[in-house]
Request: fold
Amino acid sequence: MIEINGTIIGEETVTAKLRDLPLRVTMELRTAIAERTMELLGRAKEKASGPVLRNKTGTLRRKINARFENEGLLGIVGIKLSYAAIHELGFDGIENVREHVRRNLRQMKEDRKARTWGNKKGTHDTKAQLGRGEIHVRAHTRHMEMPKRSFLRSTLNDLRPSIRVSLKKAIEEALKEA
Reply:
């Protein structure tokens, strides 16, 4: 039987480097995740402004946000807006429409009385208060078909390869230092 013995020179240094390895990997991953999350946020906002949604007011774009959880190891890009999911996922179903006043702003601008319509809160108590360019709409249901116009999931799919490369590089950098 052959017996081989060895001695590690600098055992304390090697042990310390191995002990610090998880912390280095975590730090590199945090940086990479933060960078990719902010890139995803910016690109999703661009897509929401561009041809996908044909931005009108900018509310949806402004409501897209990013947050970090699990001590920065989880980057989340999302949106808290009631109608965002309909744009992202599409919708085919029955919609309940509340009673409201439809305003034709072009007609109202032509009418000088448009400046004084409504009460102080801008609402109308009766049909008699309706001004020119305004129509009372009763509550009703209607069928609505809205196609998918993804701006979040499609952006993530576009960036998926670069995200993987970035995370792999972060781990490799941490291991190089060891």
In short: Residues 11-88+149-177 form one domain. The CA atoms of residues 39 and 57 lie 23 Å apart. Helices lie at 11-49, 59-63, 84-89, 105-110, 153-177. The radius of gyration is 29 Å.
